[in-house]
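Researcher: Quick test of sequence recovery. Tokens follow.
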């Protein structure tokens, strides 16, 4: 079992004590991180005892222990998956060579950019979710929010470790900048657009953790293939924690749907006005939230055609999702892929070099994975006997990146005029009234075992605890 040393100031399994200069640099960064957490972490949470899991090893078999901890005292640290003996590069121009244990000079700028962009998403999501604890629908959900938050904090540590260890002064400066940017701030926003969107309510949070953390899964899987071995080992362990974040999202939306279906059957109505008056979120509103979060998330994969994506792959910096399971030469020169484009007023598929379409390859893998979860939500509706089905919108819908940016397309994939878009946008995306309704339902429930009216309880509790367990203690 690959254990973690918790005896030092910074928990780690990388023998940090053997590199005094690095240890000092990270210990100097640590107070800034804690100040950021106090300023931008979960609002009003500093004194709460929270039933959290903490990694005790990076072994996939039972790596977490559970117990009460105050979040500012959480033991954030640096945890890499075990090194693979004689690991070789298995894609790109360097295929067959030994994996890199240090940063090759010619790839230094691109690797730093990849690590900084990934690192920037981690504190951003904590900032986006900062006020949600004040309207948590139960102690169970409050604890899950806090678990997600502390793990995003640790993912920031993961990227900052790589910046400090392998990028010298530049890396240290980037580490400081990660604490200075702020989600949604006009003058110094987070790098990616989706991480500057507000998360004002719990339906948004569940959609975010389902869709946007799923983007994180796919990006981390691609980085876990990297020829730069420390990055690959870092992201492999991060993926273990990312799975919980997606579970929070998928199960959260399923519970919202279940409660709505219960009221629909009880009141024998599908009228959104009556359902809203009864204090639940109607299914068409859930669909509009789905449309928004899905479309914002698929933009995170970048432009449909990208020379950067080609460079990252050929250089061995970033692979594909499940690279090892693909039956091709893992070099991709001369291969092609279909991407969507607008031509003569029609959406058409065009063939482009696969190396330039790798963002689209990853996006399509993500879409397939997302659809599977939406199908599971539909089973909840089907079980309730209600003839309504949620759908993932067309991938050209509401896009702001790449060749499809600004093209007006309905959720079904039909090109529409600007006038038709304006006439229907409130049926396709959450309107101000939708958002006001959802926010109006948010009210903090902190009695153990009790849940807000708009969401069903979970099937089971955390770590074999009962649903009514006191997951957060208010002192």
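Model:
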């Amino acid at each position: 079992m690959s254990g973690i040393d918790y005896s030092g100031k910074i928990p780690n399994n990388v023998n940090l004590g053997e590199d005094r200069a690095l240890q000092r640099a990270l210990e100097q960064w640590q107070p800034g991180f804690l100040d950021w957490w106090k300023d931008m972490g979960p609002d009003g949470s500093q004194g709460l005892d929270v039933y959290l899991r903490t990694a005790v090893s990076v072994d996939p078999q039972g790596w977490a222990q559970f117990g009460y901890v105050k979040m500012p005292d959480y033991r954030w640290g640096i945890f890499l998956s075990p090194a693979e003996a004689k690991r070789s590069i298995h894609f790109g121009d360097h295929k067959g060579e030994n994996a890199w244990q240090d940063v090759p000079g010619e790839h230094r700028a691109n690797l730093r950019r990849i690590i900084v962009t990934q690192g920037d998403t981690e504190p951003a999501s904590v900032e986006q979710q900062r006020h949600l604890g004040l309207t948590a629908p139960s102690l169970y959900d409050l604890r899950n929010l806090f678990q997600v938050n502390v793990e995003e904090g640790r993912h920031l540590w993961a990227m900052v470790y790589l910046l400090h260890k392998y990028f010298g002064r530049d890396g240290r400066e980037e580490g400081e900048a990660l604490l200075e940017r702020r989600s949604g701030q006009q003058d110094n926003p987070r790098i990616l657009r989706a991480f500057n969107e507000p998360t004002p309510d719990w339906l948004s949070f569940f959609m975010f953790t389902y869709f946007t953390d799923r983007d994180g899964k796919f990006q981390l899987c691609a980085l876990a293939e990297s020829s730069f071995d420390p990055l690959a080992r870092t992201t492999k362990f991060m993926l273990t924690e990312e799975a919980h974040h997606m579970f929070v999202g998928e199960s959260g939306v399923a519970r919202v749907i279940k409660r709505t279906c219960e009221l629909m059957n009880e009141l024998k109505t599908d009228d959104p006005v009556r359902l809203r008056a009864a204090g639940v979120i109607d299914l068409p509103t859930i669909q509009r939230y789905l449309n928004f979060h899905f479309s914002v998330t698929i933009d995170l994969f970048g432009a449909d055609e990208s020379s950067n994506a080609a460079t990252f792959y050929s250089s061995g910096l970033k692979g594909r999702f499940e690279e090892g399971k693909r039956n091709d030469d893992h070099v991709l020169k001369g291969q092609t892929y279909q991407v969507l484009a607008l031509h003569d007023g029609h959406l058409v598929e065009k063939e482009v070099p696969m190396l330039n379409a790798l963002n689209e390859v990853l996006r399509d893998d993500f879409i397939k994975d997302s659809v599977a979860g939406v199908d599971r939500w539909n089973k909840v509706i089907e079980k309730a006997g209600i003839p309504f089905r949620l759908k993932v919108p067309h991938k050209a819908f509401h896009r702001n990146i790449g060749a499809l940016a600004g093209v007006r397309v309905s959720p079904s994939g039909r090109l529409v005029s600007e006038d038709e878009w304006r006439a229907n946008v409130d049926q396709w995306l959450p309107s101000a009234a939708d958002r006001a309704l959802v926010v109006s339902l948010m009210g903090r429930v902190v009695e153990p075992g009790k849940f807000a009216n708009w969401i069903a309880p979970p099937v089971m509790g955390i770590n074999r605890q009962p649903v009514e367990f006191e997951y957060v203690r208010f002192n």
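The mean pLDDT is 96.
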